[in-house]
Structures are given as C-alpha cells and as structure tokens.
Amino acid sequence: MKKIASLISMLIILFNIKASATIVVINVANFQFNPANANVIVGDTVRFTFTQGFHNATTNGVTNGQPSGAAPLNSGNPGSVQTYDYETAVAGVYNYVCQVHPSMVGQFTVSNIVPVTLIQFNIQTAVKKPLLTWITGSEINADYFSIRSSADDKHFTEVGRVNATGNSSTQQFYSYTDNTITTSNNFIYYELVIVDKNGNEQLSPIKLFANNSSAIKLVEQLSPNPVSRPGMLMVYFNSQKKDQMSVQVFDATGKQVLATDMEAVQGLNSGHIHVCDFTAGIYTLVFSMNGLKETKQVVVN
User: Fold this and answer.
1) C-alpha closest to that of 203 among 4, 19, 15, 24
2) What is the pTM of this model?
C-alpha cells in the first residue's frame, strides 16, 4: 500500500513539474547569444528572440549539434524571423551557431525530470564568498545536490555536495557556501544538479555571482593570437552591467584602423573583430568601458 501511495505521489509531482514547463528566452543581438548557456528541462521551450543584426540559430553543420533522436534546431535564413521556438523533447547538450557568424556559439543542456520540485534557487551577492540557497517543495527518492561552478559559463565542475532529505512532502531549506573561489575571476557561474538515488540528474537554471573580491578587469582573453587572415579575433570581456565597450585598433605606425563598439550584459561577454582588411603586422587594441581602459597587442599574419 505504501508503494502505491509513493507511486501516486511521484506521478503527481511529475505531472506538476510538466505542467509548469517554462519558456527560456535567448536574446540574439550584437553577435551574441544571451545567455550563451542555459539549462532547461524536457518539455520546456527555448525561445530565440532576434532583436538586432543579421543572425540565425542552427545546429546544422555543427558537430554534436543535438543529441541523437532530437530534431535539428534551425530558425531559418538569417534575418528571416524575429522569434523562433524550439520545444525540447530529448535530454542532452545542444550546440548551435549563427550561420553567418560561426564565431557566435551557444549551448543549452536539457535534463530529464526527477521527482523533486525545486521552488527556488538563489545566490546572495553582497558577500565575499557565494552563499547558495535553495528550497524544495517535495522530494521522492532524492539523494543529493551537486553544486557546480564555472568561470566561462560552459565548463562546470563540482565544488560540493549537500545531502537531500530524500522523501518529503513539505518544504525543505538548503544552503551551501563556496569557499573554493579565488580572486582570479570577476564572475562565477553556478548550477545546482539534483541527483536521485537511481543516478538521474536534473539541472537548475544557471546563476551568476559577481566576485567583488577580484580586481575588476575588462579583457579576459583574445583568441587566437596570432590571428591569420581572413579570420577573426575573438574578444572575451567582462562587464559589471549592461553596457557598451569601445574598441580602437591601431597599427604599428599609430594609425587608427578600426573603431567599433561591443554590446555587453553583466558577466562574461564575447565579441569579434574581422581582420580581413588588416595587413600583416602588430596591432594595438585599446578597450574602454565604464571608466576602465586596457591595452592589448595582437599579431596578424
């Protein structure tokens, strides 16, 4: 009788989770997918909203673009739509690009449903060490919560575990402080992975922590350097808020050969510079945003 009751409870939880399937919005503008990475649950819809630029989103031609059995993701020809919905049906990692700008890459991970209702997942930001808190509404056969962090919003590593209550029909409150962070990164991304006793996993939405203990810097990486024509230079940079970064490029004689702006959201951003029209040589790049200025050098072959 207890097994039947547990099965009924599990079915009710799964139904409630499915009924609360959400729409996850990815904004496409200024050579970026924002967010560049997202976690969703089977049955959720990923909605691409194209607001600026000549872009699309597609897994066509991308190695391991979508999991086996999943429908290809393709919003159509660049600039042809303003909104594109992709309903997720198969768990796994989806990698997509803009057909015209292949340096624009995005990713989302679809996980299956586990019989745990995650009501809330937050990070307290006004602290030196990130304090993660979460609440479950009910749990069946839950094992533990894996806390994973990432500096680039793509590659996540487990930094800790918290045991789950296991079986509960009332709210359960959890917290975890990440003492592993250093001062090397301006931003750290976190995801919570719910693991049941059968080893099944469900991923939470990704949360951002602003690391106030680190020295604020603009440019994280320029890649590749040297860069070969007719390629493009990728710029990975930080922003404390929604803003715009000014970029000036000077050749070896001090002549300015390019001036452009890169749109930014809070966190780690990406942009690119086409070097097709540059002659071979050493170039100086000056980045400016929100009172900060940094200078880098790049070799163009």
Assistant:
1) 24
2) 0.87
Q: Give per-residue pLDDT as tens, 34-55.
A: 999 999 999 999 999 998 889 9
Are 132 and 149 contained in the same domain? yes
Mean pLDDT of the chain, nearest integer: 91
CA separation, residue 100 to residues 79, 187, 289 (Å): 10, 29, 27
Host domain of residue 30: 2-111
The full 3-state SS of the chain, as one line of letters, equals CHHHHHHHHHHHHHHHHHHCCCEEEEEEECCEEECCEEEEECCCEEEEEECCCCCCCECCCCCCCCCCCCCCCECCCCCCCCEEEEECCCCEEEEEECCCCCCCEEEEEEECCCCEEEEEEEEECCCCCCEEEEEEEEECCEEEEEEEEECCCCCCEEEEEEECCCCECCCEEEEEECCCCCCCCCEEEEEEEEEECCCCEEECCCEEEECCCCCCCCEEEEECCCECCCCEEEEEEEECCCEEEEEEEECCCCCEEEEEEEEECCEEEEEEEECCCCCCEEEEEEEEECCEEEEEEEEEC
Residues 129 and 48 in one domain: no
